[in-house]
Amino acid sequence: MRKYLITLVPVLMLSLQQESPTASASIGQHSTVWTPSGDDLKPTVTQERVEQAVTQLLTRYHYRKVRLSDSLSAVVWTNYLKEMDPSKVYFLASDVTSFEKYKNQIDDALVNGDLTAAFDMYNVFRKRFNERNEFVKQTLSKPFSFTADESYNVDREKAQWPKSLDEQNDLWRKMLKNQALELKLAGKADTSVASLMNSRYKNLSKNLGRIKSEDVFQWYMNAFGETLDPHTNYLAPRTADRFNEEMSASLEGIGARLQEDGEYIKITDLVPGGPAFRSKQFTAGDKIIGVAQGETGPVVSVIGMQVDDAVKLIKGPKGTVVRLQIKSPSALATDVPKEIRIVREKIKLEEGRAHKEVIDITEEGHTYKFGVVILPVFYRDFEGARRRESDVASTTTDVKNLIDSLKMQKVDGIVIDLRGNGGGSLIEAINLTGLFIPKGPVVQVRDSGGETEVMADNDPSVTYDGPLAVLVDRFSASASEIFAAAIQDYHRGIIVGGQTFGKGTVQQLIDLNNMLPKEQDKVGQVKMTTQKFYRINGSSTQHKGVTPDIQFPSRYSAEDFGESSQPSALPWDQIASARFDATNFITDKLTVKLRDKYEQRLKTDADLKREAQAVTEFKKAKENTTVSLQESKRKKEKEDAEKKVANMEKAAPQEGAEAADAPKAKKKKDTYLTEAGRVLADMIAQGGQNKTKLTSNN
């Protein structure tokens, strides 16, 4: 069987600046015309050859068959500008105008191994960065006054580059003032504010000094790769080594995978069973602002640090305390970073394995006992299986044992909780589906040539044939979507929760030294999308994900989270359906009845009403990205926002990674798990269970 890379963990990409503007600035007059200097970075001959190899590889073998053209060149040009200056705070409009001579030439440059545009544009960025750094030093030499009635828009996605130096200086003055006020409102003394901000920008400057030619080359090639799709990347040798180490090394510390995202360190994934995962206080996408040691140690800003240096601060001896300042991806503009205390320890991977609990649900005077199987990731010990070891870690084996145990406890139905499950082993997703169906296809995989392989469960035995619900959310991805889609297509269970992530693509890692055997040194790797997943009904899981039969309110919108939030994501499409025999467990008529029951509760149940109202208020508050720079007004904004958040958090839905653990201590009520149980209760009341008749779709 072919091997498929379906992990949701993003590639480790270096980037100096990202969507949140926090970095350095300039004083006085500077020339808007760049002239080369002795400090400029230059490409190597090897990089020129690698550029040609990557171009050949992506244009011939990527799933999306794209021809090089002037229009593609313009997209690469735009992507590269965003790589360097996404918040549009470093370059002037005149700089961008001067770069336009390259806009329609990049396609030819890629074929010819010409890196002139990449390094010319970067060296201008480097010059502007240093000029801004001088502005920061001078501005921070005096304390800010927060009495003037002015405001700042923290969202610069649709902003324009400054047209003049005066406009740029005013932008940076407000940006720095906003950061200082944020720290002050978080309780920092004026002297501490100045110290923290100076440290932040020194880190940024130090980070710039470490940028090498291979980093610039990597950004440029990623600007090209990401025109094809968001999961296609070039990994420079140093980044490739780090990526491979992270995929294979033993896991210690807090149990979070990190990457640089602009000047921030971002959490890309939580390791099931790790302290961060079990704390339920972190989510993928959280940005780490600062790190402190022990209960009282001072906070060290990690803004501008390279990921290796940040990891050194975060890791430490087992049993010691580390405090992290975090900015959530769902944070409002007025929110200050939250501080999370966590105890370091050796990652207990067994705690990331499937586990169960039993919940009691009373509905219309009848009490039901339901089993819940919590599945954080689709795991499989491939090496142990190859050696035919006994007790090999396997999702399917573990879940089968849990189901057998729940059947002994005489549960009335089972919920499979996949919230926050970012994927994992494809074969386990197929085998797990087989526990609930007699046998048949589970997923279709199509390559760039149009050839389709149908992958099936061939075991006719069924472990569980009772009432089944699958609970998903926006962070259920890849293998989770394959399982949920198959259960839905077979009409075997009811899918409830939020729209899933929508990652329906397969990536392969290619070592470029195999293409350039004469190169003695490492030249890096390419992670490239080569295939797509399709449901057995022919619909792609790409982009759209899996739409639940009954959708719960969610604050994680498709515009901000998931595959559909990426401009270059491969589109949804459809191929021919596979031949399969669906059950009649879940009929259209039953689904309508269950949905009606849920809609009634949504209007009358206090917990559900709070959830729906919290989501509405959150989305409304999220739209406001302009904050006051006047201390009195900002305090009022902050207090109002905190009141709303407090109301929302009274019964906050446990979405994503926060919901995937089941500690023995008494836990906060999980409204959405309770609602999944109620849906199962309605299903039983309607007689929607234990129907074994099969109906063919062909």
Rounded mean pLDDT is: 84
Low-confidence stretches: 1-34, 247-252, 651-666, 690-696
Number of strands: 21
Shape: globular
Number of helices: 19
Structural class, by secondary structure, is alpha+beta
How large a portion of the residues is in β-strands, by DSSP E?
15-25%
Using the CA coordinates, give the radius of gyration.
Answer: 26 Å
- Largest sheet data: 6 strands, antiparallel
Report the span from N to C terminus.
27 Å
Helical content stands at 25-40%
Description:
Keywords: Hydrolase, Protease, Serine protease. InterPro entries: ClpP/crotonase-like_dom_sf, PDZ, PDZ_sf, Peptidase_S41A, Tail-specific_protease, Tail_Prtase_C, TSP_N. The chain is of the alpha+beta class. 37% of the residues lie in helices and 16% in strands. A hairpin with a 4-residue loop joins strand 12 and strand 13. Helix 1 packs parallel to helix 8 and helix 16 crosses helix 19.
Task: Please specify the SSE layout and strand pairing.
Elements: H1 45-61, H2 70-84, H3 93-99, H4 106-112, H5 116-139, E1 151-153, H6 165-185, H7 190-210, H8 213-228, E2 233-235, H9 237-248, E3 256-261, E4 264-270, H10 275-279, E5 287-293, E6 300-301, H11 307-314, E7 321-327, E8 338-343, E9 355-363, E10 366-374, H12 382-386, H13 395-408, E11 413-417, H14 426-433, E12 440-447, E13 452-457, E14 468-472, H15 479-489, E15 494-497, E16 505-511, E17 525-534, E18 550-551, E19 581-583, H16 588-604, H17 606-622, E20 626-628, H18 631-649, H19 671-685, E21 694-696
Parallel strand pairs: 10-11, 11-14, 14-15, 15-18
Antiparallel strand pairs: 1-20, 2-17, 3-4, 4-5, 5-6, 5-7, 7-8, 9-10, 12-13, 12-17, 16-17, 19-21
Family: Belongs to the peptidase S41A family.
Protein name: Carboxy terminal-processing peptidase
Domain PDZ: 244-321
